[in-house]
Amino acid sequence: MNTRVAKIDTGTFACASFITSAVIHLAVFLFLVWWGRLLPPQITIQETYFVDVVNLPTVNPRSGSSSLKPPEATAMISRDPMPAMVVPSPPGAASKVVAKTSRQEAAETESAFEERMARLERNSEARHEESVLEKLRSKMKAVSSQKTAKLAASGVEAGSNYANYIKSRLEDALKITSSYTTKNPEVSVILTISADGRLSRMKIERSSGDAAFELAVRRAIDLASEKFTAPPNQSIFENGFVFKPKGISNGTSR
């Protein structure tokens, strides 16, 4: 029995191993390059300061001693001052400041609200007082008007004008009876009123010739005489009146 021994090509195997190793090393190298670009190393750069030491002025140039003391000389050499240290605030300081600001704003808001309410109350009181005063004025005017009307109606109180009182009664009556046919009718009449207030005489002194207006004047005198009051001091009153469609004017009283 013959046995065959397999022959291995050592040259081909060595070449394949070399190529595989080279590919793996190249892949690792490329990975490291890519990783270095993606995450560059953080290098801390420390700044270095250089101080130029110069000769300081001296009191005696020959002795070579400086006129400044060592601490002062050191202060002159140091160009850049040390940065001020920032002291961190306590954790609750910000909240305390915010709370204090909120309380101040609330106090200011409350004070402004109270001031506004006080101003509104003052304005309301002023308007109320003005309203009360206006009512009192209106009431006094009404009382004064009533008193004046009463004085005019009686015509006997001190200071009243009996002739004006009679004229007002005649004007009210003429508004009811007025009638005329001409453009500017006019009638002049003298009235005599007895001491007890009755019409005792009516005399037409002058007339423009308008019969309709003359009749209206007579009717107005009769109508008004029903409401005449007695003259002042219980004396006989006699006065002239000029009647026109627009109104009545007084004559001379006797």
CATH topology of the domain at 162-253: Fusion Protein Consisting Of Minor Coat Protein, Glycine Rich Linker, Tola, And A His Tag, Chain: A, Domain 2
Termini, distance in Å? 193 Å
Individual helix count = 5
CATH architecture of the domain at 162-253: 2-Layer Sandwich
Q: Helix and strand succession?
A: HHHHEEHEE
The percent range for helix content is 40-55%
Characterize the main sheet.
Answer: 4 strands, antiparallel
Oligomeric state: single chain
The neighbouring-strand order within the major sheet is 2-1-3-4
Find the structural class using helix and strand composition.
Answer: alpha+beta
What would CATH call the class of the domain at 162-253? Alpha Beta
In short:
The chain is α+β, with helices and mostly antiparallel strands and 254 residues long.
Task: Describe this protein's structure.
The protein is an alpha+beta fold and 254 residues long. The longest helix is centred in the middle third of the chain and has 62 residues, at 93-154. Helix 4 crosses helix 5. Among the domains are: 96-154; 162-253, Fusion Protein Consisting Of Minor Coat Protein, Glycine Rich Linker, Tola, And A His Tag, Chain: A, Domain 2 (2-Layer Sandwich), CATH 3.30.1150. The chain starts with 9 loop residues before the first helix and ends with a strand. The protein has helices spanning 10-38, 70-77, 93-154, 162-177, 211-225; strands at residues 187-193, 199-207, 237-244, 247-253. It is rod-shaped, with a radius of gyration of 64 Å. Strands 2-1-3-4 form a 4-stranded antiparallel β-sheet.
